[in-house]
């Protein structure tokens, strides 16, 4: 019996401006029709997987629940109060698992183009994991890549090889030596082992992590679709990867080769590598016109982008940021994100279009004392009952029907109808219909920040008050 453990943390700043801290790459549609999280879950269909658990942080919980619900694969979701890397996250999955299953640990942000080869590699690893081995999957390399860690294969062990050693990201010359030797694989960060065996080894080598995770999971609280661990205890847990905490120390580590068109999409150039290209080697998404342009990645989420007479560029245009980079320099996108964070600019964290459990809003205009948003509310969804100390709001329905509470009155609004909500008045918005509700919200006041919200009740478990 296999239980899939999907690790859905991380910020993915190397894919800025599309991937941001508040909306990272695992929740984006980058290659295909599904988000990376959804593709990871659907990839399991060829395996004997009985259930899955997704580990994510508090901020991204509604992305996970909604995206799994869209593909009818909503299962257990454990919330980390704070990110502590893969060793504690996997420990939480192991501690809460019933009947000591095999845990197939996968990152939510990898691309695998050959799913049959992926399935074969996992099935080949099952006997090893059932015998008590801790299996990691090594990617058969096709170039001297310096962006990945490496695993040196030792003697043969069933369908795999005893791990001789783990190697950090090498220099270019060293990477070439590894490839030429034929003894090294890329470290994929995917694992298969019994829950009990992982906990035994974690307890042996990192008792501090083991005890923190056991204590934090001792008081699990069920909240809507989520399981919450003890925040105060988990915050004290050391942060460590599975490799450092267990795999590099155990004598029971085995690596199974996998040649499945794998990529961790660690940069825009790696996304270009795995994407379908036109005759000129270009990858385009959105409203893009390319003329005399070669080997470029051009993406537009909103408006027309024209590329003329350029080669080897990455052009990514979102609603609030434009990045133009040479493919050889795209790793530095994370430096831009770090600078934006240091400057306290919102573009490092959130998009102009912000997703919420009830729908989304797009800040389409703003000035010194006003802001205009286009709000979309999903059928049956409801915003929290709330009030604001510093701003008034004017709602105009564009399409659909709105159920509005404005002070002591509750009423319906249809297309082209509106209501005004003064400062300090308790209000709420609900979509009672079967189609999306679209409305324009005009805010006016001395302060328009998102933290000027006092909630009195909320369907989604967000903080009241």
CATH fold category name of the largest domain: Spore Coat Polysaccharide Biosynthesis Protein SpsA, Chain A
Radius of gyration: 24 Å
Strand % is: 35-45%
CATH 4th-level superfamily of the largest domain: Spore Coat Polysaccharide Biosynthesis Protein SpsA, Chain A
User: Which of globular, elongated, flat, extended, rod-shaped describes the shape?
Assistant: globular
Model description:
It is a single chain. By secondary structure, the protein is an alpha/beta fold. It folds into three domains: 2-263, Spore Coat Polysaccharide Biosynthesis Protein SpsA, Chain A; 268-335, no CATH class; 353-457, Sandwich (Jelly Rolls). The chain is built from eleven helices and 30 strands. The protein has a six-stranded antiparallel β-sheet, with no helix packed on it. A hairpin with a 3-residue loop joins strand 21 (359-366) and strand 22. Helix 3 crosses helix 6, helix 3 (86-96) crosses helix 7 (207-216) and helix 6 (195-205) packs across helix 7.
